[in-house]
Amino acid sequence: MQLFPLQFQVTLYPRPRQFDWVALLTRFVQASDLGKSENAVLLPLGENAPPEVPRLLFSAPSHSIQFEATGLSWTMKWLELPTPIRDDWFCAEKRSLACRVLLAAVRDFEVKIGRVASLVSWGLSCDEPPALWIAKRFFRQELLVEPFNRPARVEVHSHKVYRFGSFEVNSWGRVKTESLLNPDALLPSPWIVSFQSDLNTLAGRPEDFNAEQMSEFYAAAWEQHTIVRGLYLGAV
Length: 236
Hints:
Elements: E1 2-14, H1 21-32, E2 40-42, E3 56-60, E4 65-69, E5 74-78, H2 88-109, E6 113-125, H3 130-138, H4 141-145, E7 155-164, E8 167-179, E9 191-201, H5 211-233
Helix pairs in contact: 1-2, 2-5
């Protein structure tokens, strides 16, 4: 079996306000030092567009990361690359860069942040059909006789609310079968077990997050993601 990171996302949720998207795009390109202005796209949407629709996209191919802004959230994430050419060290380094750029943008634009979130997903290449691996991991032996004797796809979700460090968070764990769109040639099959750990602070917090708190959250979240991964997937 081979375990490899698939994706990360670090997300901030600004307090509601009207953004000058052209000014935001210009300043982000200038301040990020991640790439050239031709990698930035301002989507031509009217003022009445739904707030969850992306308004600004900025990709930095040389760093393998992308910035996406909507009226509700700002997110830095990995650009899609063949897998499993990446490892946890590479993922952590790119995620750290994304966090620094995102927090710098918040500081430069004087944005007030009400919630923060972090997501990491991994792929597991198995020696057996991925759906069967999940069934054996999570279901009792008698259920493997029927009805989970030959599953094609399986998905298991779990949600918790708990505190780690000084943060109270929603924690989603998702294990499922998945077919990679751009698999590495070394993988025996594009079908894998994917695991996603999603941590986000609770809605309704009256105080804004300051820069120190956001940095603390993202640093602590990486370790928490790996702990949660071990609880779901075991020692793989």
